[in-house]
Amino acid sequence: MSASKIPIIDFSGFYSEDSAKKSEVVTQVRESCLYNGFFQIINHSVPLGHQQAALKSAKKFFNLPQNDKDKVSKNNNTWNRGYEMLRSQILEEGTQPELKEGFYIGADLPVDHPYFVEKKLNSGPNQWPQGLGDDLDYFRNSTMDYYNKSLELASDLLRVLALSLDLEENFFARFMDGAVATMRLLHYPSQPKDADEKLTRGIGAHTDFGAITMLLQDEVDGLQVWDQRNQSWIDVEPTTGALVVNLGNLMARWTNEKYKSNVHRVINKSGKERYSIPVFLSGNPDYVVECIPTCQSAGDPSKYEPITVQAAVSAAYAESYGRAQLYKQQSGKPMDSEVQAKPLASAAY
Q1: What's 74's DSSP letter?
Q2: HSE (CB half, 13 Å, CA atoms) of 182?
Q3: What's a BP term from Gene Ontology annotated to this protein (predicted)?
Q4: Residues near 40 by Cβ (< 8 Å), separated by ≥ 6?
Q5: Is the pLDDT of residue 204 over 70?
């Protein structure tokens, strides 16, 4: 595998009746997961129109006045839904709070749903930005359509991963039954050209918390993946219609670190606004993750104790946001004091 770029896999082969084409997709995914846990897919099941509509809605939301965004702050609830202001998170120790703002969306569950009542991982009703006015219905429909299509694709990806690990194709079905996933609309203001890259990040170098992540990028680059073998950063160039797929810590743990949960970051020095939409698949919060049978042997026993999805992912969230709160306390500055997001011109839609 080339270290110079992240591979692009034609996912249509998985849906083919030609077993050779399906096997080729499985092989390409296996090679990517063994190498650095990142690949892009094209010709998948999420329509381009859904991708474009979701990005359009993200731009409309972030173009709102700050006061309207603050009305749907994720601080209004305890289940991680709503607006996240600039500089709210630190994923890479030793860097400044990150130069991004976001909006969290998930399955829109009523308050009498068992997941909400039992305080399951990031589960509950969404907040919807009333400041969008007549555009609110479009925003809600386009983001939820994209979210639901992404979950369907996640099931397909897990079927491929199962085959790549010499498991039955439906091995991850119970994990996906009642699965929790979180979608983030993200906006990265352009970093100043003279910013110190060692301290300033759109998102700091980190690994993801859950099982898999599916990322939609707009046309502005900035995502970089660490190539451990060659000790260098790989730029992930945006490709129209493609989704970037990467494995998270939960999958690395599940596979006894056979498959990689790799370090990545975003540094936006393009001089343009960058938008992206990651969907983070955590899985059924009560599911117990323990080493996959094909990933352990007498000579390579399981490295980890069994753990529930709820316990594993909740701990990682708490750590990353705790770093930002500590920075705020030590610096005496509000998180968004240094940078304010600038509204987009209407032509950007």
Answers
A1: G
A2: 23
A3: small molecule biosynthetic process
A4: 6, 7, 8, 9, 236, 239, 242, 243, 244, 245
A5: yes
